[in-house]
Amino acid sequence: MGKSWLRDYIVKRLLYAVIIAWGILTITFILVRVGPSSPADKYLANIAARGGDPAQVTAAVEARYGLDKPIYVQYFNYLGNLFRGNWGWSFSTSMPVIELIKTHWIYSFQLILLSSIFAAVLGILIGIYSAVKQYTKTDYAFTFMSFIGISIPTFWLGIMLILVFSVKLGLFKTYYDTSLPLFSLDNLKALILPVITLGTGMLAGYVRYTRSAMLDNLKKAFVTTARAKGLPERTVIGKHVFRNALLPLVTIIMFDLGSIVFGGAYLTEIIFGIPGLGQISFNAIFANDYPVVVAVTLIGTFMVLLVNLATDISYTYLDPRIRYG
Amino acid sequence: MKKIGMGIALALVLIITLMAGCAKGGVSTTVKGDFIDGESGGDAETLNWILAADATSFSYAGHTVDSLATYDNQLNIQLRCLAKDIEVSPDGLVYTVTIRNDLKWSNGLAVTSEDYVYTLKNLMFSDWLNYPYKSDWQEEVDGKTVFVTPQVVNDTTFSIIRQNAYPEFIYTIYSLTPYPKYIAVNYEGNVEAFTQAPEFNNLSYTGNLGPYKFKEWSRNDRFVVERNPDYYLGKDIGAPYFDQYIIKLFGDSTTRQAALQAGDITSTGIEPAEVNRFKSMPNINVYTIPTRGYTLLAYNQRANGWEALKDKKVRQALSTAISKQTISQAILLGFAEPAYSFIPTTSPWYTDEGISKYGVDPLFGKQLAAELLFNEGYGTKENDGTIRVTNKDGTPVNLILAVNTGSKPAQDMAFSIRKDLLQLGIETEIKLVPWATLLRQYVMNTVPDSKQEPAYNNGSEAVSQQRWDMILMGFNTDLLAPSGSHVFFTTKGGLNFFGYSNPEVDELFGRARSEEALDKTSRRQIYAELSQVLSDEQPVDFLVFHRANVAFQKNVMGIDPGVNMGYNYYIWYFEPVK
Fold it and tell me: Which of A124, B19, B282, B362 is most buried, by the most CB atoms less than 10 A from its CB?
């Protein structure tokens, strides 16, 4: 049988994911379309300044993008197109939505992925060290620094890093250069400051969570037993304590991943001029560019649902006692 | 003889080589490097410019297609696609436009007057496309709105005929750029296909019409154009001299300025507080230039504003209390000058004569303002002679000042105004609202209980959704054609959201846009009268005209700083390494 229950569970969760995504798509579509704003809003002041009729221009712009039809017609047209793989035309950037996302997702993805790895690896290592060396000067230093890391605003940190490492020391370019080849050392170098900016807060959090989870487990009886059995300290910490501490950590890391997909990376993208999905969706919201808003929300929803599913699956490997019915 | 011939040939080769190297004013210029312009005002909407209403879209497309003409810093017309200046008939009704005969589309076809007339008639004037600025090409005839009439005369000449004279219409024609008829006909009538047409969205048709050719547009990131070696104005001098011209977008002014300081970009605008720091840098040149923009304080004269604001004397009193020196010197650090009317000093139509200068000495001061209000019945006198400003029924005056979020100087101005009015005893509540909310809830108006669509001026009975008394806002004046400001100050003006109405002003703007103004002396007189009336009437408090600060790396040569400093950017170059 193996883990056939897990396969059934995954299929069930994926089905739920589709239903949830459809619900969120519908809600987003309605919210964007029934609001008082119109994609023509930005034209109005210019038009009025030239003596034009704002109502006529609004009607013209809405007709140009099919927004003059009843909302249910627009909705079903949109769903029909979506099933045919047509995500619509972005009227604030003048390109097909799918092309827009294809071009820009990678900038967000590489930033989020590298920041998460940077924060998780370093945060866990420091957290373990802090717990094992509890109440030493190093532990106090890491604790102090992690509180600073948690408190520091992303925006301020990014600008400070630019002023020190780019302007004063000249080690990095002041902005992210999209003309660099993606798989190159130059690109990796260009991402160092953005990754530190986005990852610092998460890193500091992981230090605190890891330290706390490790200390909880270090006090447990099975640790005393393991030590009594004469196991080397490295094995006790790595195999027994850390493995048990990992479960809540995975939850937190995956939760963080979901949060930054939904906007946490936006500020970092702004500071370093990275044209990722955060910037694209933010601008689309202000431009009432609903095909982009709905598409990005949909992708974000799927990402979060998949991350949650991955988290649940990872539990079954981290703790074999866990089973889903 | 043969040797002499060889010698002459060699000499000629030498002369030609030297001439090619000394493109301008004997300065050796070579094509090299990328010019990177740092901007943070948001990205363009489309490169299919006829659909755009935002200035950035026009600016992007403008690197690849020249208009008929532009103007320099002294506001002299500089011909671009024009072979000679536009000829205007003595009655001001017929404009004859002659274009150059060396303009080409990308497929090698000549750009002809047919392309211009097609762009006007079949695209800009069409119902299916709904060109956002079609009203620029319309006039009122017998109560009806009609389009002007473009006509092809020959391959390089076309005419535009109006039925009413409007002297400043010529500037609308100067700004005209064409679409290629041979491509556009394939999309005619189908707005969706036209909107998504790859040729227009990739600017692949632009031939030799601009100094640069489109290369890449990464949304919310950068717009890249590359040198056009066939550019019609550059072919004899080797211009333009940059390999690429790149517009890099930044989300924040701090990082944009840091990029300039680090040498990662070539040029950008500088915030007033940073000017001295950048001026002290050895590798940077900072130019302070006048602009067309001004900030005003609109007084709500509609039914949902303070009733007293309909009284000219009250508006004068408030403008007397508000210090323009504080705004121009303390807030904008000297990079602005007090404004008294809608025409900036850089405009050829500016006049100082007879202007009422509220907000500076001698028309400035708490006591003077209080007395003006008291004389109108808005105040009570204490035993010691101090005036306490109140409503006519003796209740305290509480006003609402709305200003959009996101502009630190605008917010500082709002607090300065609040402080000035507080000295009179007027309490001002500042409402900081996002731009879209400001427009929808405070600026746009409708007649109560009607089914009107909200607009900026829905007639004298219309009011905004939210109550307000003052709004801080930025306006622009066309330096060469100030009569365009009629939309702000005439009774039916499309942007007269504050409800000002004065038949004398309506009449003066009408005259500025009529046959009478064909005579420049008459036009000057009309503008002088308009400035005098508006500076006296104070429909708004004209606060300050802004100056901009633009910084460049010091090795950029050929810049002519001024109000339109980009007019000659195709001959800018990097200083050769010595």
Answer: A124
Of A52, A273, A280, the CB nearest to B219: A280
> With an 8 Å Cβ cutoff, are B494 and A52 in contact?
yes
A45 and B495 within 8 Å at the Cβ level: the answer is yes
Q: Rounded to whole angstroms, what are the CA distances from A161 to A208, A250, B26, B479? A: 24, 29, 44, 43
- Chain A residues in contact with B264 (beta carbon < 8 A): 166, 173-175
What are B259's two structure tokens?
Answer: 């990029």
CB pairs under 8 A between A and B: 152
Residue A167, chain B, CB below 8 Å: the answer is: yes
Structural domains of chain A ordered from first start: 4-83 (no CATH), 98-318 (1.10.3720.10)
Nearest CA in chain A to B484: A50
A265: left (phi over 0), alpha (psi -120 to 50) or beta: alpha
The 8-class DSSP code of residue B485 comes to G
The residue whose two tokens read 């609040």 is: B418
* Contact criterion met (CB < 8 Å) for B220 and A60: no
- How far apart are the CA of B139 and the nearest CA of chain A, in angstroms? 11
Query: How distant is the Cα of A151 from the closest Cα of chain B, in angstroms?
Result: 22
pTM of the full structure = 0.88
Contact (CB, 8 A) for B102 and A17: no
Q: Hey, are the CB atoms on A61 and B130 less than 8 Å from each other?
A: yes
Give contacts of A53 with chain B, Cβ < 8 Å.
135, 455, 494
Q: How far apart are CA B431 and CA B409, in angstroms?
A: 15
Q: Which residues from chain A sit within 8 angstroms of residue B130, using beta carbons?
A: 57, 60-61, 63-64
pLDDT in tens, chain B (578 residues): 444 444 544 444 444 444 434 444 445 568 789 999 999 878 998 999 998 878 899 999 999 999 999 999 999 999 999 999 999 999 999 999 999 999 999 999 999 999 999 999 999 999 888 888 888 999 999 999 999 999 999 999 999 999 999 999 999 999 999 999 999 999 999 988 999 999 999 999 999 999 999 999 999 999 999 999 999 999 899 999 999 999 999 988 999 999 999 999 999 999 999 999 999 999 999 999 999 999 999 999 999 999 999 999 999 999 999 999 999 999 999 999 999 999 999 999 999 999 999 999 999 999 999 999 999 999 998 888 889 999 999 999 999 999 998 888 999 999 999 999 999 999 999 999 988 789 889 999 999 999 888 888 999 999 999 999 999 999 889 999 999 999 999 999 988 999 999 999 999 999 999 999 999 999 999 999 999 999 999 999 999 999 999 999 999 999 999 999 999 999 999 998 66
Contacts for A17 with CB less than 8 Å, ≥ 6 apart: A302, A305, A306, A309
- Kindly determine whether residue A273 and residue B221, on different chains, have CB atoms separated by under 8 Å: yes
Q: Given CB atoms, is A49 within the 8 Å cutoff of chain B?
A: yes
Optimal mutation site among B203, B219, B473, interface A, most CBs of chain A within 10 A: B219
